[in-house]
Every structure is written in C-alpha cells, then in structure tokens.
Specification:
heterodimer; A: 493 residues; alpha+beta; seven-stranded mixed beta sheet; four-stranded mixed beta sheet; 13 helices; 19 strands; B: 279 residues; mainly alpha; MetI-like fold
C-alpha cells in the first residue's frame, strides 16, 4: 500500500513537471461557416445552433454518440413496457443546471410538455407527436406514455430539439443558454464568436478542455487562411474541398473525411409540368452523371446515392444502378413523354458549393439531352422564400442533413410535393412498427418506392471534411447529427 | 494637322486603342470561333496549367480559360455599351433641359434627383434591383445604366451652361429659335467631344462595375462566362492554380487600362484648348 502511494506521488510529480514543461494547451478554437441566429435549440431549425450547444451546453434524456448510436444521457437507464407504450426513465441524481438549480423529473416534464404544446415553436414537433402523457413520479423517475408504439422514440429524444431545459432559465435561452452540459455559456460577440467554458460542477465525466471558442468565418477563402495561420484549431465541415490536399500535405494538420446525414439531391417540383410526368423525372435521373458532379463540385468527396437514404446506414439499399448515367436513354424517355426536343425549366441554387458548382455541371449535362435550364443563384433567405415556401422552381439542389428524414416524402405539402398514398401508408406502418426486422423491411421498400417514382435526382451523400491541428484528439469523424461535441476532445502534447 | 496624324502621334491614345481593339476583337471573333466550347464541361481535364492545347489552362470544370475570356469579353462589352447608352440617352437630354431653363423649378428637380441617384454607388443600386428582380445580366445593365444617368446629366448641364452665354447662341435666340432647337442644333454639337471622352471613361468604369457585380454574384448568371465570376470562383484555388485568377484578372486590368488611356488620348486630341496649347 505504501509502495503504491509512493508510486502515485512520483507519477503525479512527473505529471506536474511534464505539464509545466509543455505549458499544456487547454482551450480550442473551432471554425464554423454559419453563425447561429440564437442559442435555443428548442426554438429553431437552424443547425448552427446545435453545432454550438449540442452535448456541450444542453443534454437530453438520450444522446447520439460519434457513430450515431443512441446512448443514455440525463436518463441513466429506462424500461419499456411490453406493449411498447410506457417508457420509464430513471434520471441521474444530483444533476445541476448551470444557474445552480437542480435538474429533476419536473424539468423533464416541463421540457417535453413545452415542446409538444399547441403553441410550441419547436422546429421538430413531429418528434414529440406520439407522446400522450409525461408524469414525474419522483425526482429521478419520469414516465412517458405514448399513444401508439414508436420504435424511434429513444432516437427522437436524442435530437438537439429534445434537450432538457429549465422553466427558470428558458426565457433567456436565446442569448444566454442554461443547460446541464459539461460546458457553460460565457460570451457571444455577434458576428464574430461564441465562447464556452468548462463546467466545474458537471455531473458526468468532466471535459478535458478548459474552454472553447466558436469562430464564425463564412467565406471559404478566409476559412482556408484562418486554418493555415492556425487562428482556428479545427474546422469541421470545411467549406472548400479543393483545399484539402494542401492541408493533407502539411504535417501540422489532420484531415478527417467522414460522412454526414446529408443526402444531396436534385430536388424536382413534382407538381410542376413537365415534372409531374414520371417519364420526364426518369429521363432526368439518367441524364445526370453523378461521378462528374462529385469530382467537379466536391473534388471527389461524397458517396453516390440512388435514393434518399444514408449509405452508411445498415438498412441502405444501393439503387444507383437504377438511375445510371445514360444520356441516350434519357433522350428516348423524353421523346416517349412527348418532349423529343426537350424543354426549358429553372434551376435555383442556394449558396453552398455543392449547389452552385453542382448546378453548373448538372445544367451542362441536362443541355446534352435537350433540357435547357436557367440557373439562378440565390441567397438562403431568397431560396427559402421562393423554393421552400413558394414552390416557385423547376429544379433545385440541396442537401437534406437531418438524420433518417425519408419521412419527408410522406408530406405532400413538402416543397418537392411528392404525393403518394402508398408511400404515406408505408410511413404510417413504419411508425407503428417496433420490431427492428419489420422496420428494416419497411425502410428498404420505402427507399425503393421513391427510387421507382424518380421523385428527385439522387446525387451523393455529403462528406464531412474536418481540418484540425494534428495534436487534437477526440473530434467526431462523422456527423450523425449537427454537433461539435467537445466533451472528449483534448490536446495531445 | 489632321486628326489621324495627331492620333498616330499620341502615344497613350495608340496604346489604349490597341488594347481596346484587342478586347473588342476577341469578343467579335468569339461569335465565329473559340478554341473550345465554353458550355461543355470536361471534369476529367480540370485545372490544367497553360499548354499549347489550352493556352491559358483549364478551370475547375475543365473549360478552356482562353475561350472563356473571349466570350467573357462579350458579356463585359454588352453590359458596358448598353449601360453607357442608357446614361447618354437619358442623361444628356436631362442635362440639356436643365441648362436651357437654368434655376427654374425643372432644373432644380432634375439636378436634385440626379444628386440623389449619384449618392448611391452602382453596387448598392444593383443589390436593390437584384433583391427585387433577381440577379441577371439585364439587371446589372440597368443598375450600371442608372448610375451613368447623373454622370452625363451633370456633365452636359455644366458644359451647356457656359455655351448658353455665348454670342452664337444669342444670335440663334434673336433669329427666333426656341430652347429645344438651340439645344439640339447649337449646344449638342459643341459638347459632343466632351461626351465622347466621358463615354470612353464611363465605358471602362462599366467594365469594372460589371466585373464587380458578377464577382459578388449579381451579374451574368452561369453558364454565361464573366470575368468577375471567374475571379470569384478561382478564389479558393488561387494557392494551387493561380492561372485561374491571373488571366481573367489581367483581362480586366488591360481592358480598363486601355480604355482609360484611350479616353485620356481622346481628350487631348479633341479638346480645342489643349490642342492649341500643344501646337
């Protein structure tokens, strides 16, 4: 015992001197392209909010880990009734919000009831739709009763939109978020950066960093310069794929190329002639050379997809062969549909390079089969107004970055306006199914159905290139949800 | 001394005229011939450095940069010519009218409105127009054109005012000509030289404005090549493919330089006072 103590003392003495010698770095600067509009993840769809607060400031009952698996978070464990309707969560005890108030079952009840309330501003209200009642049984036990079994309930509770907030502090969350996470909010310099600091009273494994700064750099050239000059230590989702080889060649940096949940698609207005004709949409699919889009727009980054589903998901079906590049077939399909000389349409492009560059390539490919597209480059606000809310477009290119979002095809009012009773029925079946095998079968036939109907042009799964200082350990490779989880990040000195 | 010999002796005019002719020539030739089709992409041959096949190299989509600069000259000329045209067609009559009725209410309205428009830079006008009508080459033309109106209105009014006090105008009035006839028959011919010089300067500013607007994405939309957009797209690749930025950049610099030199030379050649001082 005594021997062990001496050894420990020696080890810690060594650690101290080592620490002094290296003047260990304990904070990090993360580059981000978009600045969040505010910091309440339960009040807006903007992914940039979760990029700052998810897992760092706010936590939910469950959470995603770096691979997309569902882990317990504020809920230590749970039991599910045999009929799949009643979830009883047992919460960690002694969890405190950053303002010193305690986190207990009443806060969980408050958060879930608030999110599913009639007047809720939650951007993902569908996550909470199946909840019938939420009861606080005792301070560390919550019972959630569903109106129907829902195999995705624990997955839903892991979203950034489902985090646990406190009634005492939620009113100011947009500018001063108060959560239970390993970091506390420190400061926000609008237009420049957000700073967070280590939460010394964290209930779980404490963060290894003392703090972090999220710096907002929207211009890709400035992002490149900031990383090269080491003004930022890591830049997840780096905006200019063409610069990655230069970072790879530089020993100061690590380039991690992971995957995202972003299905990048040539969205087609299914209600607008001639796209209401499935033959025309099929012709469109065969007119596109995906590999040229990936090489030209993304400098090779991205996995081809043939349907609206992430290729890294176990239930993915590779349907790229069904919409292979075949301009001759496209031409004959157009002739069959009554457009032997092609037609004219619009292609409205939001700002990201996958859209702007991809759009130019696709326009050139469509010209080859006789389809003349007029390109309009739009800012996000204009795109949301004209395309997403106004349905005023023929074609557009956008990446759908929400995880497991094939359900959007069951919403006829969703901007590409696919209205299929069979698909809507399929999604209802999926919601009712809790058996993993049955869900897998349904998900696979859903992928085939939208590929058979050629709803949209399926291009590629967006990659997640992260450029980081070579000494940083613990960053997420993939982006199973929008997040910069810093809980396990540290500097390897 | 005839105009031609004077022009040949004027070094800045000649250099400017040669540069401008090169650029107008490239635009004209591009209608008949370009080394490659600028709307065809060839991703497999992207980012090639200059070679005997691709004189200026290829861009990130494998398009020939030389061909793109030729066709881009077309875009620049079209936008600048029409924009200067708008400025002359609307600005000159306004200036003449204001000068003919000096200090009248009409003069005040015309010139103060001009001041108002002049206060907004072309870029701001363009952003306003594109916010309403969406980005396109037409809207860039309108924005630059609107910016040109007060330039010509002011110049015309100033020059016309000094002419209105001259004896030949007085005799025309005595002969019974009204203000409109005097403006058209006596004032306008006497300020033509001035308008030509200003026109060439505004033309070069128009080229620059077009490049600026397409650089920020408010000019001609793809696939129509435009020098400004070529620069903008090259920006992230400048560290490993500098030829993407150098050639369109040089095209803009040389064209604007050429037109300015030509404008300077024209002023020397056409301004009677300077001509007298020189001889």
């Amino acid at each position: 015992m005594k021997y062990l103590n001496i050894k420990l003392a020696m080890a810690s003495a060594l650690a101290i001197t080592a620490g002094m010698a290296n003047a260990e770095t304990k904070d990090i600067t993360i580059g981000m392209q978009l600045e969040p509009p505010h910091l309440d993840p339960t009040g807006a769809a903007a992914g940039a909010i979760d990029s700052v607060v998810y897992a760092n400031i706010f936590e939910g009952l469950t959470r995603f880990d770096a691979t997309g698996a569902i882990l317990p978070a504020l809920a230590e464990s749970w039991t599910i009734s045999d009929d799949g309707l009643v979830y009883t969560f047992s919460l960690h005890s002694g969890v405190m919000f950053h303002d010193g108030t305690s986190m207990d079952s009443e806060d969980v009840k408050f958060s879930l009831d608030r999110a599913r309330a009639e007047d809720s501003t939650n951007a993902q209200k569908a996550l909470f739709e199946g909840i019938d009642t939420v009861e606080a049984l005792d301070p560390t036990t919550v019972r959630v009763t569903l109106s129907a079994p829902n195999g995705a309930f624990l997955f839903n509770m892991a979203w950034g939109d489902a985090v646990i907030v406190a009634s005492e502090s939620i009113d100011d969350a947009k500018t001063h978020p108060v959560g239970t996470g390993p970091f506390t909010f420190t400061n926000w310099v609008q237009g420049d950066s957000i700073t967070i600091s280590k939460n010394a009273d964290y209930w779980g494994t404490p963060a290894r960093l003392d703090g972090a700064t999220f710096k907002f750099i929207s211009d890709p050239t400035a992002a490149y310069a900031a990383v090269m000059a080491e003004d930022v230590d890591a830049f997840p989702n780096f905006p200019a794929p063409e610069n990655l080889p230069q970072f790879e060649a530089d020993s100061r940096f690590n380039v991690l190329v992971g995957s995202t949940e972003g299905e990048t698609i040539l969205s087609t207005n299914n209600k607008m002639p001639p796209f209401d004709n499935v033959k025309v949409r099929e012709a469109l699919a065969h007119a596109i050379d995906r590999q040229a889009v990936i090489d030209g727009a993304m400098f090779g980054l991205g996995t081809p997809i043939g349907t609206h589903f992430a290729p890294h998901h176990p239930d993915y079906v590779d349907l790229t062969g069904q919409s292979n590049y075949d301009p001759e077939l496209a031409k004959s399909l157009l002739a069959e549909a009554g457009y032997p000389d092609g037609f004219e349409t619009t292609l409205k492009l939001p700002p990201p390079p996958y859209a702007r560059r991809g759009g130019e390539i696709i326009a050139a490919q469509l010209r080859e089969v006789g389809i003349n597209v007029e390109i309009s480059n739009l800012e996000w606000a204009q795109w949301l107004e004209q395309v997403f809310r106004g349905y005023d477009f023929g074609l557009t290119i956008v990446s759908h970055t929400e995880p497991m979002d094939i359900g959007i095809y069951a919403r006829p009012e969703y901007y590409f306006q696919y209205d299929s009773a069979a698909f809507q029925q399929l999604m209802e079946d999926l919601n009712d199914a809790t058996d993993p095998d049955a869900r897998s079968v349904i998900l696979k036939s859903a992928q085939r159905m939208i590929a058979d109907d050629y709803v949209n042009g399926y291009l590629f799964q967006l990659a997640n290139p992260t450029v980081a200082n070579a000494n940083i350990v613990g960053l997420w490779l993939n982006a199973p949800t929008q997040a910069n989880d810093l809980t396990a990040v540290y500097w390897n000195d | 001394m005839s105009f031609l010999t004077a022009a040949l002796r004027n070094r800045s005019f000649m250099i400017g005229a040669i540069l401008a002719a090169l650029f107008v020539g490239a635009a004209l030739v591009s209608y008949l011939w370009t080394p490659f089709d600028v709307t065809k992409l060839d991703i497999a041959h992207k980012l090639q450095t200059p070679s005997t096949e691709h004189w200026f190299g290829t861009d990130h989509f494998g398009r020939d940069i030389f061909a793109m600069i030729m066709v881009g000259a077309r875009t620049s000329i079209a936008v600048a010519v029409v924009a200067v045209g708008i400025g002359i067609i609307l600005g000159v009559p306004l200036g003449l009218a204001a000068a003919a009725r000096k200090d009248s209410l009409m003069d005040e309205i015309i010139m103060r409105t001009n001041d108002l428009v002049f206060a907004f830079p072309a870029l701001l006008i363009a952003i306003m127009i594109t916010a309403v009508f969406g980005p396109s080459a037409i809207n860039a033309i309108i924005a630059i054109g609107i910016f040109n109106i007060p330039v010509f209105a002011r110049l015309t009014r100033g020059a016309a005012l000094s002419l209105w006090t001259r004896d030949f105008v007085l005799s025309a009035r005595v002969a019974g000509k009204n203000a409109t006839r005097i403006s058209v028959e006596h004032i306008l011919p006497n300020i033509l030289n001035l308008l030509i010089v200003q026109g060439s300067v505004q033309f070069s500013l128009g080229i620059l404005a077009e490049a600026g607007l397409s650089y920020v994405g408010l000019g001609a939309q793809p696939p129509i090549p435009s020098w400004g957009r070529m620069l903008a797209e090259s920006q992230t690749m400048i560290s490993f493919a500098p030829h993407l930025a150098i050639f369109p950049g040089m095209a803009i610099v040389l064209t604007v330089l050429g037109l300015n030199l030509m404008g300077d030379g024209l002023r020397d050649l056409l301004d009677p006072r300077l001509r007298r001082a020189r001889t």
